[in-house]
Hints:
By secondary structure, the protein is of the alpha/beta class. It folds into two domains: about 30-240, Queuine tRNA-ribosyltransferase-like (TIM Barrel); about 270-370, no CATH class. About 45% of the residues lie in helices and about 20% in strands. It contains 15 helices and 16 strands. It has an eight-stranded parallel beta sheet. Strands 1-2-3 form a three-stranded antiparallel beta sheet. A three-stranded antiparallel beta sheet has the order 7-8-9. Strand 1 and strand 2 (about 15-20) form a beta hairpin. Helix 10 (about 255-260) packs parallel to helix 14. The termini are far apart.
Amino acid sequence: xxxxxxxxxxxxxxxxxxxIKTSHGVVETPVFMPVGTLATIKxxxxxxxxxxxxxxxxxxxxxxxxxxxxDVINLFSGLHNFMNWQGPILTDSGGFQVFSLAKxxxxxxxxxxxxxxxxxxxxxxxxxxxxxVQISLGSDIMMCLDQCIxxxxxxxxxxxxxxxxxxxAKRCKNRWKEKGExxxxxxxxxxxxxFKELREKSAADLVETGFSGYALGGLSVGEPAEIMLEIxxxxxxxxxxxxxxxxxxxxxxxxxxxxxxxxxxxxDCVLPTRNAxxxxxxTADGTINICNSQYKYDTAPVEEGCIxxxxxxxxxxxxxxxxxAKELLAYRLNTIHNINYxxxxxxxxxxxxxxDAFEVFRKEFYRRRRES
Length: 372
């Protein structure tokens, strides 16, 4: 079962609130998906993820295919039982990881051939196999295999990647249909680099093929934020309003606010978890680097008014002590707070959209940062 419906729209922006229905539960949008690359949100249990407010998580096809492998996950009939997470799961296709991690990777019309970054073993990832692996994982939302390119890229390179991505998307859909997985979602990924006309062509080709939802790939890959937002603004308008729109790999709290204003529904990014492990904590007034000496005697919580487990129980001074001492609890408590911040940010935006007060929310969001 997969369904999406828009329940409210902002009159001043393109921001919208929606509902995604899956066989593992309903997701309210706009939504941020914590990244659980290896079937875990680093340092947190599934129960802590739920308490932090997350309703859907992301896992990684490339990594889980290599380790522990589909044969292990099949023993549990999929990721949900394997990792004891009963909410919805979105899995990416693995294309970006082959592009960025694999040794001696080669791309052909057939797919990616590569050597594992773990043990050097040889593999091939075709569009058909990407779908089959995600079916084995039990994904609620699967992603088509796409070709990723670096930034900056020449137009010819971006055009070539677009054409291959479109051809692969069609093959992914054919295998998805052959396997009878229409109760699960399959999203197409819009590519085209930083070229508007290529983004438009990619979107049109994918919409013609027809998918459960659509994603913007190839953003937040080193380009300036203003270019990312300009391309997203243009491309999001080319996607059907009745389908969920997912901006992959983004981003900072400010990016999320602006992209929601442009009509995006779904996001994922490693920032809240990775930065937590590096001692950076997100608050409504901006970021805190907990290693700074100013927090050594600070008895306040990370964020006044925050109801997360970390803020209810621990001070900035204690969190700084843990981080400076390299205690493992530091990573867990910091991650709990950051995931809670991101999920609350999305809930607050959704409520503002439902009340048709998104611009009021947006102005307040930036005011607090300026005045802190």
